[in-house]
Amino acid sequence: MNKHHRRIVKDLNKYAGEANPTMAGDSYTGSNHFYYAVRVPTRRKLIKNWLRVNADLSDREKLTVVDSLFHGKSHEEKTIAAYLLGYCPGVRKLATHKMLEKWLYVLVGWAEVDALCQNIFTAEELLADWNNWEVWLIKQTKVQNISLRRSSLVFLTWPTVKSSDERLHDLAYQNIDTLKYESDILITKAISWLLRSMAETRPKSVVAYLEKNEDTLPKIAMRETRRKLKTGKKN
């Protein structure tokens, strides 16, 4: 275990049990990993404090900490790794798709997967390396591991909220088309989420897509996306 990782685990132990311990493994975490029962705001505060104390660390050294945390035993270590990545653009530049794939394989359930895939990589970051991102995200739709298949959708949610770039939206539709016949809620809800994200910047396109694919899209995705288009509200 990385020495900085050990320091972070020590801090986690100070707050263990502050959250509801029954949340471990339930519909919130969806994970069987060890659960310290530390609240998300506390986790974010811990890693922000750690970043202030260790401001002199290079991005390469921080990446080593991220990798160590993702391979920790607990739900909290894995999600804190994602928060750290989100706070450090320089570290994200060093994170290869091979690394992302390796990390996704040790994440279980939507809370852990989405910690890495949601609101971390920006539209600008994806588009700056678009050829590689496009190939990699298409690849994830065909992987047996459901965490990676979900990631192929969730990685596009924030970028499509922020950008109307056709490349992002065309890939989103392509990945939805590949996965829309699956029935697992990890996929059906991710499809709904992505369509609602796309509706923020290209609503007419989403309306047309719903009309064309009404018979094949998950019912929950149809229902939630139409509500979003009608009311402008998430739910």
Supply the key terms.
235 residues; mainly alpha; 15 helices
Commentary on this structure:
By secondary structure, the chain is mainly alpha-helical. The protein has helices at residues 3-15, 40-53, 59-70, 75-87, 89-94, 97-104, 109-117, 123-128, 130-140, 146-154, 157-162, 166-179, 185-198, 203-212, 219-231.
Low-confidence stretches: none
What is the global morphology?
A: globular
Largest sheet: none
What is the CA–CA distance across the termini?
41 Å
User: Could you tell me the strand content as a percent range?
Assistant: under 5%
Task: Assign the structural class, choosing from mainly alpha, mainly beta, alpha/beta, alpha+beta, or little secondary structure.
Answer: mainly alpha
Radius of gyration: 18 Å
- In total, the number of strands is 0
TL;DR of this structure?
This protein has 235 residues and is mainly alpha-helical. The protein has 15 helices and no strands.
Topology overview:
Blueprint: H1 3-15, H2 40-53, H3 59-70, H4 75-87, H5 89-94, H6 97-104, H7 109-117, H8 123-128, H9 130-140, H10 146-154, H11 157-162, H12 166-179, H13 185-198, H14 203-212, H15 219-231
